[in-house]
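Weekly puzzle thread! Below is a chain. First person to post its structure in token form gets bragging rights.
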Amino acid sequence: MKGINYLTIAILNFLAAIAFIVTVVVSDHSNWKITYGFGFVGLLFAITGVANTINHIKKK
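Winning reply:
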């Protein structure tokens, strides 16, 4: 796949991670499965953002 801009994808991943973490902080913690699920998805988006940033640095 040519022309993939990993930096743009990394920025979108970090924004998604921030959105999920803010959701965890703002939620009322009434359902722990949903709260931990959103936190886990936020963590996965952050890890993917780091991986895409590393790919961007390697491709330069």
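Puzzle host: Confirmed. Bonus trivia for everyone else. Residues 32-59 form the longest helix (28 residues).
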